[in-house]
Structures are given as C-alpha cells and as structure tokens.
Amino acid sequence: MLVLRYAPASPFARKIRIAADLAGVTDRLSLLETNTGDPQSGLQDVNPLGKIPTLTLENGETLYDSRVIAEYLDHLGGGTLIPGGEERFLVLRHQALADGLAEAALLQVYEGRYRPAEHRVQSWVDMQAAKVARALAAMEKTCSAPTPRITIGQVAQACALGYLDLRFGGEWRQQHPGLVAWLDDFAARVPAFEATRAP
Question: Which of 68, 139, 165, 177 allows an S-S link to 143, with CB 3.0 to 4.6 Å?
C-alpha cells in the first residue's frame, strides 16, 4: 500500500488526492494526515524537507514534492493526466503556473500565521500578492476554457483556486468570471474536487 502524508488544507496534497482518483489508483493509497509542525509526526524521517505531500512507496522509498508524486501516480494509472510529446511541456507549464500561484498564496498565509506582527514585511506580502494576481490574469486569458481531457495542469489550477477560496474568501472571483465558470465545470466533471474540500 502506498502511504500519502497530507493535510486537508494543503492545495498540493489535494492535487495529489485528485490525481490519484483520476488515475484510478485511489484504492492503492492510504492517507495519513500529518501536521508538518509536529516533530513527532515522523514526517522528517521520510522527507528531510519535512513537507507535504510525501508518498511512501511499498518498497519503503519516498517521493516528494507534489509534481514528482503526480507524475508517479500518473505512471501507475497509465498516463492519463500528463500527455507525451510537445503537449507534455505545455501541461507541465500549466501545473507550474498553478503551483506557483498556490505557493505565493501560502506564503502570504504563513507570513500572518508564523511571523510576529512587528516583524512582518508588507512589501514582501505585496510581492506575493502580485504573483497571485499575475497568475490569475494569465489563467483567465489562456486556461479558462474547458477542454475534453483533464490534465495535471487543470487539477493544479483547480486546487490553487480552491485554496484562494479557503484562505482568501474567494476574492479572486469578482474579477475572473472565466475562471469561475471554468472551476464550476471542473467541479462538475471531477467529483474528487468536492470530496477533497477542506473542512
């Protein structure tokens, strides 16, 4: 059995859970909810970076980060999420854009959660917010039309937008109607998106 260390609110772990479902390998996956701040969780024993998601294989080896894990699960499922040829690189670029958006949003959350107020740097927070804004604009322009095939780029995009809904109250929605419609379509086509929503 594969063991996935995850946290419900993580957009990267959510991406992996959805990818596993779409690849048809969910039945091979055991979920282990993990607190990255708990030194007793055992996470650092299997991933020196102490980050989630982390996937432990049946032979005891571990895989990280989410892009590597997604590729592995897609391999197990027969290659449904990451195409070959030139299209592969467009899909991987889409995933990188969506992951970058999620990372910039996460860093804003961490700044407020972990840094004392007197040490916060507003210019740094603003820089992360600008990354999110540019990524949303790029997605609205080039990634808001539904396509027949679901790719890992689309999964990553849905999870990034879901994270903005979770942590930023869905503020992005007002200026990006194309992405709102796209996400509604994705959610209707991919039941795992709703099933993996953080409480």
Answer: 139
Q: Is the dihedral of CA 15, 55, 77, 81 positive or negative?
A: positive
Q: What are phi and psi of 151, to 5 degrees?
A: -120, 170
* C-alpha to C-alpha distance for 27 and 187, rounded to whole angstroms: 21
pLDDT at 146: 87
Residues of the domain holding 141 = 85-192
Q: How far apart are CA 65 and CA 5, in angstroms?
A: 11
* Cβ(158)–Cβ(182) below 8 Å: no
188 and 112 together in one domain:
yes
Share of the chain above pLDDT 90, in %: 90
Q: Is residue 69 located within the same domain as residue 89?
A: no
Of the candidates 123, 122, 116, 198, the one whose C-alpha atom is nearest the C-alpha of residue 165 is: 198
Domain contains 199: no
**Residue 121: Cβ-neighbour burial (10 angstroms; 0-12, 13-18, 19+):** exposed
Q: Measuring CA to CA, which residue among 31, 33, 28, 34 is closest to residue 1?
A: 28
- Give the number of domains in the chain: 2
197 within a domain of the structure (yes/no) = no
- Would the pLDDT of 186 be above 90? yes
Taking the C-alpha atoms of residue 153 and residue 149, their distance in angstroms, rounded to an integer, is 11
Q: What is the pLDDT of residues 12-68, one digit of tens each?
A: 999 999 999 999 999 999 999 999 989 899 999 999 999 999 999 999 999 999 999
